[in-house]
Design a protein that fits this description.
alpha+beta, 2 domains, five-stranded mixed beta sheet, 4 helices, 18% helix, elongated
Length: 273
Amino acid sequence: MKSASGSQQSGKQCILEDSFDHFQLFFPVKSNRPSKKYMIQQIREHIAEERLTKRLKEFNKEFLFSWTDGSSQSDIYISETDKIRIIGFLNEYVDINWVENAKIRGLKKSITLTEINDKKEKNVLSFALEKDSKVFLKIKNNNDKNYRKVLKLNMEMENDRRKIYKLPRIDLALHMEVDYSKLNYQDVDNVQKTVLDALKRDKNDSSWNYLFEDDAQIFRVLCWKTKKEEDVKYNMEALTVSYRVYNPEKQMCMEMLNKPFGAMGLIGCKDDL
């Protein structure tokens, strides 16, 4: 994960350029920042709202391929379309030159791709179904005794088919609007860690929504701290969280949201990420 941070003397709500979605939370101005427990609770309650629940599910469901659910360990039919999808996915994420001509076999709880060389089976890739509807891509090279887990995927049942979805790599941006007294000393790194903990899947409590499951999904993080606008009637600090699927062709740029009109204006980038 790569991260960067910045601050300025004034500003309004800012979000990541071309973000998939964003949400904003407010906290009363106090001498100290809110506790980690309180911030996590507030973020999790916020993303439990119906609109965000739907958007998070959309974000975390990039379909890859499927195979038929079977009742035994006999071979299961895999369509030519799904074979093409499997090979295309592996060409993108696993730099192995033999997958194009591999032998593909489907079983009840796994799909295997085996290299055939001089009629001898050598290297093996396996999409193996494990607990909690997770599918792991495993690799076993010719000289290895055991498989190595290299990637985790999601699985959902639809009729009699196991549908496999990719966990996206994520760009994340945090914009903090803080009281002038905290502008120069509030710890951005601690706030970033708290937000990541709140947005990550809680293995001990599956009732909460989440943005990501694995720390490896967070590819880049940009934190931006600004002085909050003065308002004697509404003395609150704000935290805006925005996110998108990682795109290596896009810089980590923040846009300013003009609250009355919703107009966007680019305010700056962190091009060293």
